[in-house]
Amino acid sequence: MATEKLFGMHAAALQLRNQRMMLLASNIANAATPNYKARDLDFAKALDAARQGGGIEGAMEGATRYRIPTQSSLDGNTVEMATEQTAFAENALAYRSSLSFLSGRVNTLTRAIKGE
Predict the structure, then answer these.
(1) Segments making up each domain of the chain, as ranges
(2) pTM, 2 dp
(3) What is the pLDDT of residue 7?
(4) How far apart are CA 112 and CA 116, in angstroms?
(5) How open is the CA angle 58-62-63, to the nearest 5 degrees?
(6) How large is the average pLDDT for residues 6-16?
(7) H/E element, 83
């Protein structure tokens, strides 16, 4: 994969972090929905699958898991806001880190092409 040679694992990581952020946002949005089951992504497993050629969609399918709540809810909802907010913040930080790396790499390649 050409992007892997240029950008390392960060290109796939950025896409997976984006997908995880959407899962976590969905969990937060459905915190009051009866019988909603919170989901999360096993990021390491998804990244391994994506790097082995499974693609982002295939990696997501194999690594998406239902979250097991620490305290069950009477309406069957498994969203725990503190857990979701913590996971969202952690994922956002990792997303920014990957984005910063990619931005630096693109800037370096652009300077090299221009001969600076």
Answers:
(1) 2-114
(2) 0.82
(3) 65
(4) 6
(5) 115
(6) 80
(7) helix 81-114
